[in-house]
Inverse folding.
């Protein structure tokens, strides 16, 4: 279980994001992943988001967060962080979701914000073809993954891509600030 806390909606009270897995396993022996966000409203903790339902809209994100990609049988939450990209005291929730099956599947990167009213919006969505790494570096992210050519074996991409993701003050948005590729 992982937790991350931060004042997502700027009301002075921290929200808490929790990722966990079920104790029981399904037909394939795989535990079900969960991701939930809780907030204090009316003096009580309530769940304001459950990633097994619809995903926060926007950012080019798919309609569901915890729904394994086509051809893959399971998922796990590999990253759960709060990052204040705009340095405005209202961090965004950064979630990395790995898809798996007989081999590694896509690594999905979600950056989600919360509005004053408590609704969640996907600000950015990125996905690799297979695996990858998400690293928080202060108010930026490094998203590193392999770029596979047609002849590349599953183990060995011929190109590595490194995206630096952060706040762009000119556009007022979280976006890919730079892309660096290594390889032939």
């Amino acid at each position: 279980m992982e937790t991350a806390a931060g004042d997502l909606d700027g009301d002075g009270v921290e929200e808490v994001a929790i990722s966990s897995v079920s104790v029981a396993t399904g037909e394939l022996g795989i535990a079900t992943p969960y991701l939930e966000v809780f907030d204090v409203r009316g003096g009580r903790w309530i769940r304001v988001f459950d990633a097994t339902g619809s995903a926060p809209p926007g950012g080019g994100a798919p309609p569901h967060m915890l729904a394994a990609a086509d051809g893959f049988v399971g998922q796990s939450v590999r990253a759960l962080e709060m990052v204040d990209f705009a340095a405005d005291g209202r961090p965004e929730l950064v979630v990395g979701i790995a898809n798996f099956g007989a081999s590694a599947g896509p690594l999905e990167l979600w950056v989600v914000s919360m509005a004053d009213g408590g609704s969640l919006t996907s600000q950015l969505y990125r996905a690799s073809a297979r695996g990858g790494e998400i690293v928080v570096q202060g108010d930026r992210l490094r998203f590193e993954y392999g770029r596979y050519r047609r002849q590349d074996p599953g183990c060995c991409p011929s190109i590595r891509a490194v995206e630096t993701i952060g706040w762009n003050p000119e556009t007022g948005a979280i976006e890919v600030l730079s892309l660096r590729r290594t390889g032939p």
About this structure: DSSP finds no helices and twelve strands in the chain. The mean pLDDT is 92.
